[in-house]
Amino acid sequence: MVGVNREKRKGAVRAAIGFAAGDAGEGTAYALLGASGNGGVVRVPFRCRPLPALRGRDISYSALTAVAIELRRRGIRSVALVTEDERLVRDLDERLPVPAPLAMPYVALRCELNRFQEAHVTASDEPAIRDLSARSRAEVFLQPAA
Questions:
Q1: Using 50, 70 and 90 to split pLDDT, how confident is the model at 142?
Q2: Which of these, 52, 73, 113, 135, could form a disulfide with 2 (CB 3.0-4.6 Å)?
Q3: For 125-140, how does the pLDDT look when each residue is reduced to its tens digit (9 = 90+)?
Q4: Mean pLDDT value across the chain
């Protein structure tokens, strides 16, 4: 069952997600697991085809899809994903039409979320997510210099 913007259920693993991708589409997402990060931080690489007209929406979909795949691979069955991207949450919650280039990333994310027993996606501007995004940006943009 995919729920968006609803209170998380007992037993769901909370994953606060920050991410970034470079111009070539190589990205890194970090997920802070647990309400206070007591589950640790998971690093998940991902690829996308960033299109400037989408203003990062495509990156958001790819990052959350990659994190969902990794969490399921780790045996997590119920998840509450938290992202800074309010547009993504609104797209999922209201089932709004998305631009054509987002159609497949939207479907891919929905499919991954549906593979959980329970999945919730919410938006937050909490400092931990901003920190994870900054960490991702540093990694992505400093990597070519190495």
A1: confident
A2: 113
A3: 999 999 999 999 999 8
A4: 88
Q: Which residues have CB under 8 Å from 125's CB, separation 6+?
A: 84
145 within a domain of the structure (yes/no): no
Q: Which CATH number characterizes residue 80's domain?
A: 3.30.420.10
Question: What are the tens digits of pLDDT across the range 15-34?
Answer: 999 999 998 889 999 999 98
Q: Is residue 146 part of a domain?
A: no
Two tokens, residue 37: 């990060």
- Please tell me the pTM assigned to this model: 0.88
- Helix H or strand E encompassing 64: helix 57-73
Is 27 inside any structural domain?
A: yes
What does the angle CA 97 – CA 47 – CA 141 come to, to the nearest 5 degrees?
115
Residue type, 66: A
Instruction: Count structural domains, the chain.
Output: 1
Enumerate helices (H) and strands (E) in the chain, giving the number of each: 4, 6
For residue 68, what are the CA distances in angstroms to 43, 50, 63, 64?
Answer: 12, 20, 9, 6
